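User: Fold both of these, please.

Assistant: Here is the first one.
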Amino acid sequence: MSPAFSYSIAVFVIIFIAGCSVNLLRQHYIFQLIGIAFFFTYMVINSAIIVENTASVSFQQLFYSSLPSLFGMSACLICLALGVWIFPSIRNKFKD
């Protein structure tokens, strides 16, 4: 397992746990959309810096450099889906 992949799994787990805790808020989707936008922007800027600084960059280098951002975006999307389908009943239990 490459270090980029293990780091990406760690990013996924941390963002997933944080996203599940954010799901307890009423307007959780705003924070998760901001997270997705942040990871996308970071991925684009990081890829642009790598392409600018490296004379011949391969697709594998770009993929491994954007892998943590992709895992972070997927964790945000999974938590967003959980917040829409599963967490409303949990929020109602805390509300009562």
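And the second sequence with its predicted structure:
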Amino acid sequence: MGMMKFDIPHSLPKEEVKKRVEQLLQYWGGKYGVKADWTGEGAKIVGKVMGIKLDASFVITDKAVEGEGTDPGMLLRGQATKYLKEKFSSVLDPGKSLDQVKSALG
């Protein structure tokens, strides 16, 4: 199976991005059982989100969250990419506070 790349831009300090992404990973862990293993500014994620196998890694840079994961195949690729971009973009929205991000994830 091939790899699917993603690149979500942000305008926040890296420490803030990491806190927000940690909230997203906790949400996925609680809802879907996804496991995350952090190493420095990046993490490896393994599990299933919305029935789609997720085996991905990413790194937080000064301007983006860059990563790649297993490609779920042609039929689900668009849906998977859209979901990842929406979730990451939502938690990285500079117009939201960390508390608002936590509340939105529920």
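The first strand starts at residue 3 and ends at 9.
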